[in-house]
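Thread: manganese (II) ion complex, take 2
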Amino acid sequence: MAAPGENLRINPDRLWDSLMEMAKVGPGVAGGNNRQTLTDADAQGRRLFQSWCEEAGMTMAVDTMGNMFMTRPGSDPDAPPVYVGSHLDTQPTGGKYDGVLGVLGGLEVVRSLNDLGIRTKHPIVVTNWTNEEGTRFAPAMLSSGVFAGVHTQEEAYAKEDAEGLTFGGELSRIGWVGDEEAGARKDRMRAFFELHIEQGPILEAEGKDIGIVTHGQGLSWTQVTVTGKDAHTGSTPMPMRKNAGLAMARILELVDEIAWSHAPHAVGAAGHIDISPNSRNVIPGKAVFTVDFRSPDVAVIRDMEHRLKTGAQKICEDMGLEAAFEKVGGFDPVTFDAACVTAIRNAADRLGYSHRDIISGAGHDACWINRVAPTAMVMCPCVDGLSHNEAEEITRDWAKAGCDVLFHAVVETAEIVE
Ligand code: GLV
Ligand code: MN
Ligand code: MN
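Output below.
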């Protein structure tokens, strides 16, 4: 493969300006973003990204899941493309960089190639995957999952948000149902690279510029429904209560204990909680919440799932309540492609950035794409490891280093044409 020259660098100011421009779309309430998937703000962000890509000479294809593929042609029409990207959707109280850095980093790679007049043998396709976050429509990474054949499109279209609106209906409403069959191109991918902020504290604490992501930890989402009985908080004697809120509190203690029992590499929490009827003077008759367990070890994930079910069942039985469990998301731990990981490590070395290998704590589209194409990820630090929070922050230098490494890895894989 042609090795890119030492002198190749992205334009860090342009990358930063684009990040700040995109952050104006779907602003949050505290300096971050609320650009949830398939909202009007999502559509606006897509259009902005499309316009930038088209200005950079790329052509757009959109698949039936709304995944966007922006292509810079290669010199060999038969050469499979190198993919690069991430997601533009955010959490309801999301930051400006989670996902966005990877998409706009891909765009910056193409803009920099244009500046330098460099052609590659393989096309480069910058991708925005729909609904990575999984906030409105569980599970996370839904559309890269359909693309990779993990979920069916039918299942995905039927997913409902809290208001009962469907994924399929909302995708159509915002006007982003494409005509390309989802996954049609999955067997013609040379590689996929995703740049992302770490979303954890390790790189910053160790003063490293770059994380070379060798693995992704596995994830399991179990939605638990506890059913008791709504009753008056004042007049119902303690022995007669069927308090679903109390059962949930006990189960959440159990979740914490289970995760701690596998310390330091396992984690567990419930971030989604609905208590019903959620009225000050009604004993809650129903609690619905999603337990999120993660670990790099699949046996640990299975153990945590099992202990949650048996433990929560026992808590509910002892209190005379019903418990039901539904697996609403998950994937087993991921090992990224050795050649792609090496391309990233070589790039970091060549550019003189300090680096370490790292396991991704978060889920990423790369975790699904790894099933259908050689895949790896580059990470840069984020301040205090904070993410999924409007205060999420990175420095320009971190963004620059991450995108320079992405640039070199992509260009090396796409092969410069002399
Ligand atoms: C995706 O953002 C996740 O939950 O890790
Ligand atoms: Mn993300
Ligand atoms: Mn996220």
